Inverse folding.
DNA sequence: ATGAAATTAAATCAGGTGCTTGAAACACTT
DNA sequence: AAGTGTTTCAAGCACCTGATTTAATTTCAT
């Protein structure tokens, strides 16, 4: 394996483990049996390394997402279409490919960067994900035509949150559940998340401007 | 306002904005009109500052969560109890208090730290959140007795993910939705998330060991 | 007012950061 | 085998980090 590939590989692994700022070029190059200057020679800067990782991984995930979406368009299936679309969206992001946990590791990286490098992350995600995500928004939208836009986007937002949390934070629920639930089991995670979010998407629309849920004591605190 | 309080306040704000490592003690003390040594004099180290922030904020959120949980125990309400429990859990974490976005800002900080300081974060969250979260697990569990443990914890896990994502990542969905959906509107976020996750919790249980959802072409790729 | 204790201030420490440099080593054509 | 462009290497640059130290200042009970 040539030096640039080795650098990208170990950089992605280390970034996703410890974050972007916490990982120094020195530690990356040491782990890759490469010299510090190699990073700048091949990529130009530390940030360019991150951008390259995004490019590679996003294009893979996007291609697979679109492939699966097309597949479930052809198939007029017995399983509900909503679930199929969700599967096409979640599977490429959460399920290991090539025996390694590459896609999932990247989604963890993406969640990490979102917090510690907000501006760059926003830009990268918008550049690489928004187009394909937009297609899924359309597809989901068509299945949920009774839902108002506002409710729909909120629920898509919650889906994203659950997806990233599953990819990034496999630890805590194991403690709370006493080990019953293991987010590193990606296949189960996808199945469970499809079921959960499909039900969430299908929930009755919110009754706007009358909050029936909050008890009176807290409703009085609401400021709009 | 005395120096330690000022330091904690600005530290929390800056940490939640840019992450823990990215914010230097120098920038914190400069923004607080204090000296670098004050941090070590009052708290001992940069990490102790973070721990102190966790202590203060977690105890506030925990107290409010328990108060609301007790409240909805007393009230044998017309609104479904599941929704009330979810409200008691989400409201204190997502809704601004004292006119400022303190609780929400802290949840954002918590999400940030989870990724860039995994070990410390795990320990702090376990120390400050797990006990109260355990009570909510019990309460939710009692409302969902037909659900098997595994499904239940997965769904609680997804709820956590959606909650943190809403607190931490208010930007993206606005782009995708064309501004229709605004996660910084905490009241709406809580309402929507309650509705979404309540439906998710109530979804039919998964049919284990027979994946009805995934199309055959991808099921064949499953390795267990 | 005074002396002790709590607090702040400025200078400094050792160590780590991303990045640059100029020379050496390599691969490959002619 | 010489010469070419590409890649690697060790050393060093300027800068920033958290932490420490020493001295000055403030606070406050006596």
């Amino acid at each position: 394996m040539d030096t640039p590939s080795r650098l990208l590989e170990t950089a992605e692994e280390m970034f996703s483990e410890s974050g972007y700022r916490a990982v120094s070029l020195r530690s990356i190059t040491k782990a890759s049996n490469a010299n510090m200057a190699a990073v700048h020679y091949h990529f130009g800067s530390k940030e360019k390394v991150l951008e390259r990782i995004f490019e590679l991984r996003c294009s893979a995930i996007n291609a697979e997402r679109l492939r699966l979406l097309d597949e479930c368009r052809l198939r007029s299936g017995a399983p509900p279409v909503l679930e199929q679309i969700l599967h096409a969206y979640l599977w490429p992001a959460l399920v290991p490919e090539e025996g390694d946990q590459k896609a999932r590791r990247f989604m963890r990286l993406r969640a990490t960067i979102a917090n510690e490098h907000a501006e760059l992350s926003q830009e990268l995600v918008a550049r690489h994900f928004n187009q394909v995500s937009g297609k899924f928004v359309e597809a989901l939208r068509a299945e949920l035509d009774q839902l108002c836009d506002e409710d729909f986007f909120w629920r898509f937002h919650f889906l994203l949150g659950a997806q990233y949390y599953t990819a990034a934070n496999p630890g805590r629920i194991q403690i709370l559940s006493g080990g019953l639930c293991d987010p590193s089991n990606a296949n189960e995670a996808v199945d469970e998340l499809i079921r959960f979010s499909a039900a969430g998407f299908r929930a009755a629309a919110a009754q706007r401007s009358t909050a029936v849920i909050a008890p009176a004591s807290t409703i009085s605190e609401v400021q709009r």
Chain B has a mean pLDDT of 87.
